Protein 1
Amino acid sequence: MKRAITPGTFDPITHGHLDVITRASQLMDEVIVAVAASPGKNPLFSLEERADLARRATAHLPNVSVEPFEGLLVDFARSRDARVLIKGLRAITDFEYEFQMAALNYELGKDIETVFIMSPPQYMYLSSSIVRELASLNSPVDQFVAPFVAKALQEKYAGLRSGC
Ligand code: COA
């Protein structure tokens, strides 16, 4: 059984993330989308909200599950008996950062391998922060995220604007 982890903050999950998860699910028997707490990033959505949106976005993929996690990624991977981390590479600018993280994760867990999947051209420029910025400015984000993610963004920013 080949089980992989696709980790991220997913604040929120985009079509770019879904592309990587879908392709990972075609390569592996089982994929766990690991939604990191990432407190240092001060996420817009809570951990449970991010995991819930990721669950809904991947509901059509039978061998994909979603789990929130805190702490070290390699520890989470080991706890799930997964030996492969799959990450998306969008542009050359991702490389240095991803290289550093892959090297650190290798140091922390030599039994765990990082594998990269190249993003297709249409998602090379996409990121959650770009989607958040557009949504915060009331610009449509439907071409970048699932309809329920767009709605959740709209509601979140409406709530923030009204001070809720
Ligand atoms: N398509 C679209 N966007 C993508 C993408 C893709 N394929 N891959 C990454 N992104 C974007 C994200 O949307 C995010 O955008 P933003 O920062 O503009 O909002 C950005 O790339 C970074 O992604 P993120 O999900 O935050 O991942 P990361 O590469 O920074 O790593 C973890 C997050 C969870 C994997 C990492 O922080 C981690 O492992 N944390 C656990 C603690 C730990 O083990 N630390 C040591 C590890 S080195």
Note: The chain has a mean pLDDT of 95.
Protein 2
Amino acid sequence: MNAVSEVSIAGSAGSSLKALNDWVTEVAALTRPERIHWCDGSDAENAALVAAMEADGTLVRLNHDTHPGSWLHRSDPDDVARVEHLTFVCTPERDEAGPNNHWMAPADAHAKIDALFDGCMEGRTMYVIPYCMGPIDSPLSRCGVEITDSPYVVANMRIMTRMGAPALARIEREGTFVKGLHSTGELDPDRRFIMHFPEELAIKSYGSGYGGNALLGKKCHALRIASHQARSEGWLAEHMLILGVTNPQGETHYIAAAFPSACGKTNLAMLIPPEGYRRDGWTINTIGDDICWMRPGKDGRLYAINPEAGFFGVAPGTSAKSNPSALASIQSNTIFTNVGVTADNQPWWEGLGEGEPVTDWRGDPYDADTRPAAHPNARFTVSAKQCPSWSPEAENPEGVPISAIVFGGRRPSLVPLVFQARDWTHGVLVGAAMGSETTAAATGAVGVMRRDPMAMKPFCGYNFADYFSHWLSFDDGNNKLPQIFHVNWFRKGEGGDFLWPGFGDNLRVLEWMIGRVKGEAAAVETPIGWLPAAEDLNLDGVELTGEARQKLFGFEREGWKNEFDSIGEYLDSYGPRMPQALKDEQKLILVKLSVS
Ligand code: GTP
Ligand code: SPV
Ligand code: MN
């Protein structure tokens, strides 16, 4: 593969690249690769890498008549999701990481993981990937360098980030970058760690080649390290999609929404308006589907960028009906991970709605009694620009102004379709108190209710109590902050079915939110916030049973009392670090709930 070269930039580098070059030399001394390849992000480099991966079976060619430029990767069957129990935040003091993180002392963590890295790249190529999270010329963007021995990681990082020469130039200009060291190692779950060193702006990940464990720009950098940086620099790094809603009058409102993993961010970000809305001229513009960095602008509003350049989306359930924009995006130049394949070699997954699998995600003949064709956390990696609803505003270096922040999770009972927080402090409590059922995006049991504040439980790089204080600090009397809402697309009826149609129909809820932001839409005040009556939403064309109306728009006082008792216990579990303002808000609501 002649694109692989042993380039050292030491000789030619300006002094600001010296730190990078010294680090690469140090890592090479530890991992002892046969070759070092500095990635430039070019098409020729990618073509050479893909050809080499096809030759060694890392990538399987899909049907290039139906899916030009698309490939399948089958990961190790024990390496199919994030591993939260093996993910550590290594701050000098345990309390800085907080009860929300697994913690290890930095020196111990380095020693433990460096022992695994010792000689691990012998006979292999070490790739150096300079990347930029966010538009290359945005003051909100931040750069990093990932060193990896996985060409699959290189190919994914090329889609997910602005990778290569322009990023290296920015690093040279700025002189600072996040250091991410990754090796797939033996893919042995017993020799696997994902470690973060926020004070050192460093990440070390060993033993997994999958998604958020291995594409270090994503959850490791853009959330765990960035949330830590954001705290000291006065901004927010969040697990949120960003979308623009344009109404028939041509006004666009940008909304950022935090839902836990596999709870609907990609779907909402690419929403297709229901028929009547389309006719009236409503459109959706996609800025991002997973991560949002935002900070107050000169006018006091929060301005947001999507630090990513691609989507690493959940494949199962993606269909022409549920998410036509995602499906259209992944017809070409897409890497599929752990999906099944049809007889004519097209990618296939449960919920696709057409075709039939012959081979499952492990490469075995498909047998419905053995396992699903696609792993439930099977994913596609594709450039955001291939999405029909992609907005050029995603490249705006200033970011887009946010009108509303939405929190939500999978709540089969109690929680209504939507409500609005009274003010910022209440909204922060709504986010802090979020709960959701676990999904296949991480290893472990699925469908277990857990608190997942702001959808950041697996991703906040420091103590949640300090994180909530940071959120509260934005209400400084000068900022013009967004309204905060909570949604639940996953409320179930007695029969166990979802009561809300969801997907495109979620625009009905977004329209109500924008109406609230503009002071036009009606709502009823309750102790948990402002709730719409069913009549306050445009439900033209939606059939809802009596049970659905009652549960989606009702307020269940007794259930909420129990919920607020449990929220109080949760806040208390953080001890005295938990901001008093949140505890006061929780107590105030509990008192209101008790007065009927
Ligand atoms: P990550 O990439 O893991 O962060 O996930 P995500 O939040 O982007 O989730 P995604 O949009 O991929 O959705 C995950 C699952 O939720 C899919 O199976 C979807 O079909 C389902 N889903 C998304 N939106 C809705 C909805 O409005 N209603 C219902 N019932 N299911 C939904
Ligand atoms: C998530 O789990 O929230 C994801 C997938 O978006 S991963 O990149 O694996 O974190
Ligand atoms: Mn995610």
Note: The CA atoms of residues 523 and 532 lie 4 Å apart.
Protein 3
Amino acid sequence: MPEPTVPLSERPWEHVARMLDVDSALALVVAEFAPLPAASLSLLEACGLVLAEDVVARDDVPPFCNSAMDGYAVRACDTSEAAWQRPVTLRVVGEIAAGEAKALVVTPGTAVRIMTGAPLPAGADAVVRFEETDNPRPSSDVAAKVEVFHPAKSGDNVREAGEDIAARSVVARRGRLLGPADLGILASVGRPVVAVHRRPVVAIVSTGDEVLDPDEELAPGKIRNSNAYVLAAMARAWGASVSMLGIARDDRAELSARLRAAAAADLIVTSGGVSLGDYDLVKDVLRSEGEVAIWQVRMKPGKPLAFGRIGSTPLLGLPGNPVAAAVSFLLFGRPAIRKMLGHADLEPRFIDVVAGDAIDNRGQRRHFVRVRLEADAAGMLTARSVGEQGAGMLSSLAAANGLLIVPETLEQVQPGTRLQAIALDW
Ligand code: AMP
Ligand code: MG
């Protein structure tokens, strides 16, 4: 059962690391976020973002009745006797191309040569395709004729005004994720700029005296910073823009300065320095710079998690171990980012799978096992462990396309057990 959500501002200060289950931690995190204010963006910039207004069509789409084919605009009743052996002959009184607005009229016994997208002339109610006529060469000759081999029904190859979108109808509602087809609709109804929830900026701060940039030579005791890249790529894939704020040494002044710089973002994400029994500076500095609680979340990989605010900016303090950081960011950072983006569905995509291997899960933690999801002949997905599950083993995260969820209540998973997984399509 998730615990009731108390906003940070009303929460007594948490100095003792609290034990939380994943759902309670998630509820506490999500409650601290709201959709970001709307920004007016041009269509391409708005793609992938969530609409913050209802958009009403100013015009019909198509705006006028027009031909769906290249052919001849006719009165359908004039062609009712037409057959391949006995064509009906009509007098061609003109031609009209897409983009033209000629005042042509189709009277009994006549036709107008017409191109796809051209307005249907008055009097006509159908278009006969070239393929069903003798397709005479276009001519300025007033005596030009066309032979029609096939009877047309009223409405054949005609697109009515507003048949796709009616003027004054709502074409896209607030909350809609704008994709390619939506952009087309907005363009069609004359909306080159729309209000969407602004993209959140996520500031990424890595911590640790041992951490070097990827272009640096290794030295004894040092490792290269992988977290910043994994986390930044995830944030971007979910729709945020990223501000890379580098590596803060385990130094009080440096870390404070970096956190203050990061507070201009919509979300600060740190990695490292939050584990229990780790008396380094990160936790202290987080607490002296803002309201930050350290939690122990019953999950694996992961567990230590810091959450709170630096000034008014929310901060998510992830564990340093690369896979623990990535899984924690997926579970807690993604919903926060999605909520800021204005999405209603914050959850990952859960899929029903069958466990392919036996898995030990002692310790009452929810275990997110790196797996390959493979469909059997019947289409059922089997989740097979991709090997070494250490919290620092990035190679198994790269090899995985899913995280199998072993509930905290399940100590032992037998092969064949039905469980859920999260697809890692980032
Ligand atoms: P910590 O949570 O700071 O105790 O770090 C846990 C483990 O994660 C340690 O082995 C760190 O060296 C490692 N680690 C911390 N930050 C990073 C990083 N940015 N990239 C890769 N590994 C890291
Ligand atoms: Mg550290």
Note: The first strand starts at residue 18 and ends at 20.
